[in-house]
Specification:
By secondary structure, this protein is α/β, with parallel strands linked by helices. It is built from 10 helices and 13 strands. The termini are far apart.
Length: 345
């Protein structure tokens, strides 16, 4: 016998906005500046080599007692202020991070409470350097789907805690910081379609050296004697993937947004490496008059925080117009990626 449904009730759908946009951004850079000269006291390198390989001159590291929550709060408050939104108006908080030191609970609920928005749905996502663009897409869908009117998106990392200072492949690149954005309803499109995906076959290209299970069982170092809880990266493999795979993703995001590259007012890629940014520009053939984010020179690679941090700086310094169109793309461990065109707040 086949059981039949009652068919006496019809579900109601959420009453969301037709479109969404970013209303405000904020950033936080820790006070401590790490120069290339200081890095060279940990590894056998030079200021010239580091600049040539990465474009990094300085990077920021948080204090030992400064947490992911602290930095996220510091970035969120100016984002809310720019948006003209009180914390109590938030319908959700989404935190993109891979460095909150607790596997559970998430950073999101504590951040929401700190801000005075306790009680709203708040959660973390783990998409590494692509996390912010993933979170912007989720927030846009939440606003348009009716599950929240305003969503706070935060990209925050304390990568110094999971960096082996003696690893010549990562210690000069990784940094700390936080960037935030407020997404809300709009009468006109403000966040274009997201082009995103992942390549699990290259999962081990950027990863923690040992799983927490292995560390719990006593494996405190890897085969090379490095701290098992720190990151390792196959730099050349990541470089080739980012250069050759991300330019087509960017072009798809431009096409899906219904614009051309000439319509852009800014290109804000993940601040992974200056050489990757330059190579992507050659592949994309963007017009030379479009401002390009190069925040990595003074901020380093802050993973999920890099795009909102670069956006905040470009707006604050008047490098890009308010209301202009920006192409943003994040890519990193997973290997995960996401890109979309947004209207700048």
């Amino acid at each position: 016998m086949t059981v039949q449904p009652k068919a006496t009730g019809t579900l109601s759908s959420g009453d969301g906005a037709r479109h969404s946009r970013i209303y405000g951004v904020g950033g936080y850079r820790p006070e401590r500046v790490i120069t290339n000269e200081e890095v060279c006291t940990w590894i056998d390198s030079s200021d010239e080599w580091i600049r040539e390989r990465s474009g990094i001159v300085t990077r920021r590291w948080a204090r030992e007692d400064e947490t992911v929550i602290d930095m996220a709060e510091a970035a969120s408050r100016p984002a809310l202020e720019m948006a003209g939104i009180a914390p109590q108006q938030l319908g959700a908080v989404v935190v993109a991070t891979v460095t909150h030191p607790y596997q559970t609970p998430a950073a999101g609920p504590l951040l929401a409470t700190r801000l005075g928005a306790g009680g709203v749905p708040a959660f973390d996502i783990s998409a590494a350097c692509a996390g912010y663009c993933h979170a912007i897409s989720l927030a846009s869908d939440m606003v348009r789907g009716g599950s929240a009117e305003y969503v706070l998106v935060v990209g925050v990392e304390k990568l110094s805690e999971i960096t082996d200072k003696h690893d010549r492949g990562t210690s000069f690149i990784l940094a700390d910081g936080a960037g935030a954005a407020v997404v809300g309803p709009s009468d006109t499109p403000g966040i274009g379609p997201t082009v995103w995906g992942s390549d699990g076959e290259k999962w081990d290209t950027i990863r923690q050296r040992r799983s927490w299970t292995q560390i719990r069982e006593g494996e405190s170092t890897d085969d090379a004697g490095m701290d098992a809880a720190t990151l390792q990266m196959a730099g050349q493999s990541v470089f080739r993937w980012a250069v050759w795979s991300m330019a087509p993703v960017c072009q798809q995001a431009i096409d899906k947004a219904g614009i051309t590259a000439a319509d852009l007012d800014a290109f804000i890629p993940h601040q992974a490496n200056m050489r990757i940014i330059d190579a992507m520009l050659k592949q994309l053939k963007l017009p030379e008059d479009i401002p390009v984010a190069r925040d990595i020179a003074e901020t380093g690679n802050t993973s999920a925080a890099s795009i909102p941090l670069a956006t905040e700086r470009m707006i604050r310094e008047g490098e890009v117009p308010r209301g202009g169109l920006a192409l943003q793309v994040g890519f990193g461990a997973g290997l995960a990626y996401a890109a979309q065109v947004v209207v700048l707040p």
